[in-house]
Structures are given as C-alpha cells and as structure tokens.
Amino acid sequence: MSGPTRSRAGTTEQGSRRDRSRPPAPEPLPHPVVDNHCHLDIADGRGPDDWLDVDAALAAATAVGVPRIVQIGCDLPGARWAVETAASYDAIVAGVALHPNEAPLLAAEGRLEEALEEIERLAGAHDGVRAVGETGLDFFRTGPEGVDAQRESFARHIDIAKRLDKTLVIHDRDAHDAVLEVLDAEGAPDRWVMHCFSGDAAFARACLDRGAHLSFAGTVTFKNAADLREALVVAPQDRVLVETDAPYLTPMPYRGRPNASYLVPLTVRAMAEVRGDDLGELCAAVDASTERAFGGPWGTPSEA
Ligand SMILES: [Zn+2]
C-alpha cells in the first residue's frame, strides 16, 4: 500500500544544503527489536526519494532485525492514516493523538473538543491501535499562551488512554516537571512510555517510580548527551525501549540525514555499549518490553 505521502518535514535553507542521501544499512541485530515510535507518513523533504513507502520501509527495517513498527499519528489526518496503515499491515500497530504543539492551534480555532472526540473514536477503531500518543507538553515550540490548551489536551488524552486501556505515549520537551504534575493530578495509566526520553538520571528515576517505560532515540548517540546516557544506565533493562521518531533524530554518524526504522541498530548498539549490556540480551529485553508496554504481541513475535 504505497499511499500518497501525507506531509513533509520542514526543509530549511540549510536543509537544502545538508546531505540528504539515505545512510547505508547497518549490520543486522542478533535479535529482533521494535521501532516503537515512527512517522512513516512524514517525508523528509520534497524530492521523490524523500519518502520511503511503507513496504520499502518495512522491508529495509526487517532486513536488519527491526520487523515491527509502532506508527504514530499526531494530528487528525496522521491519526486516520495510522489507523488505516495498522489495519493493512500485521507488523504495524498505531498510536493516535493530537501533538502538544497541535492542541493550542486547534483550541484557538475552537476545534479542540471535536478533534479530541475523533481521537477517541480512532483510538477505539481496532485492536491494532495500541496507543494514545504522542500527547504531552512542549514548552520549546509552544509559548506561554498555548500552555493551558496543552495541559487540557494532555489531561484529556490521559483520560482516553485509561478508559480505553491503551498505552499512553508522552512527548516532553523542556517540560519535565509539568509532565509529572499533570500525570500525578490525573493518575498515570497502567502502561505509559516516555517517547524520545530527554531527561537526566534523576528525572528517569522519577518516571520509573511512576511505572514508565523509557524510550531512547538517536539523540542518545549525540556528543552532547552525557546526561541522557546516565539516564539510560540507571534504567532497569526491562524498562528500556528504542525508537527512531523518523524521519527525525538520525543517530550518529548520520545525524542530519534522513532517518528510518532500518537505522535502529545504530542506536541499539550504542545503548548496549553505554550500558555495558550484551547486545543480543539487550535486544531480546527491548523486544519483550515493547510488547508488554504496547499491550501484548502483534505481527510475528520474535523467537525467544
Ligand atoms: Zn514523534
């Protein structure tokens, strides 16, 4: 199903000068893992090669040991696309929500309520929709005028996840304390994931104490991410997940080039090194934890 691309990641002036070629495929992993956060519908640019259709993305990922993907739709068109795609591919499950930067825009147009109702419908569409997310707070892109709408939307998504028994996937940018405040006020659901974890060891413990799984992205390979690597080390092995957030956040040594699920092995290898874990053991743990975090097995579960 190579449907039309849905949207394109912003290309900046520099963007047009940066190396946009797709990195080569890394060495396959000794045990399969899941990319638990991906935007297969978002192309990294406007060129014909800037979008990897679902079949191509899955084939490239499966070839290096990433046979399953969690597709995240974080606005209404993206959420509808995610639900459809999860219905068409056994290897893919979906998460649906209004991104924290989307919520204030909808609120300003008086459309937040109706959008939340549609997210609830989509979240209950079929068993392949396993998560409500990415929701949360972003104090980096949204200014103070949008914070109330973000908090309201986040609280509503927590409520939807709990009532429908779905996994909550949290986007947190420069809002660590406020995220915990809202979670404590609403009560955290049974299963929740901190997407693209961006805190230090202390914040990791605060999330883990409340039952979180911590998902690490390519950012853990960046030179200036010492605090993040400390957080990775304090997390118990059975609470660690891996993601791309593709097409964004490409791991080193390909930072700035298009990301995709077939590059997950670069991040997992770096995580095993940082933790001093055996690579195969960490992969098996991440794979099993992802199934637990997202409500059980799907597609072709890996041989233990
Ligand atoms: Zn995302």
CATH topology title of the largest domain: TIM Barrel
Number of domains: 2
The H-and-E topology, N to C, reads as EHEEHEHEHHEHEHEHEHEHH
Shape: globular
Number of helical segments? 11
Largest sheet: 8 strands, parallel
The CATH superfamily of the largest domain bears the name Metal-dependent hydrolases
Q: How much helicity do the residues have?
A: 25-40%
Bound small molecules, by name, code or SMILES, are:
zinc ion
Count of strand segments: 10
Radius of gyration over alpha carbons? 18 Å
CATH-level-2 architecture of the largest domain: Alpha-Beta Barrel
Strand percent estimate? 15-25%
The strand order across the widest sheet is 2-4-5-6-7-8-9-10
Low-confidence parts: 1-14
Quickly name the level 1 CATH class of the largest domain. Alpha Beta
Mean pLDDT: 92
How would you classify the helix and strand content by structural class? Answer: alpha/beta
- For the record, give the distance between the C-alpha atoms at the N and C termini, rounded to a whole number: 30 Å
Topology of helices and strands:
Blueprint: E1 7-8, H1 13-17, E2 34-38, E3 42-43, H2 54-62, E4 68-73, H3 76-88, E5 92-96, H4 103-108, H5 112-123, E6 129-138, H6 147-163, E7 167-173, H7 176-186, E8 192-194, H8 201-209, E9 213-216, H9 226-234, E10 240-242, H10 264-275, H11 279-293
Parallel strand pairs: 1-3, 2-4, 4-5, 5-6, 6-7, 7-8, 8-9, 9-10
Helix pairs in contact: 3-5, 5-6, 8-9
The chain binds zinc ion.
Describe this structure in words.
With 304 residues, the chain is an alpha/beta fold. The chain has 2 domains: 34-67 and 214-293, TIM Barrel (Alpha-Beta Barrel); 76-89 and 99-195, TIM Barrel, CATH 3.20.20.140. The protein contains 11 helices and 10 strands. The chain has helices at residues 13-17, 54-62, 76-88, 103-108, 112-123, 147-163, 176-186, 201-209, 226-234, 264-275, 279-293; strands at 7-8, 34-38, 42-43, 68-73, 92-96, 129-138, 167-173, 192-194, 213-216, 240-242. Strand 4, helix 3 (76-88) and strand 5 (92-96) form a beta-alpha-beta unit. Helix 3 runs parallel beside helix 5. The two termini are 30 Å apart. The relative contact order is 0.16. Mean pLDDT is 92; it is low at 1-14. The chain binds zinc ion (ZN). Zinc ion (ZN) is lined by residues 37, 39, 72, 134, 245.
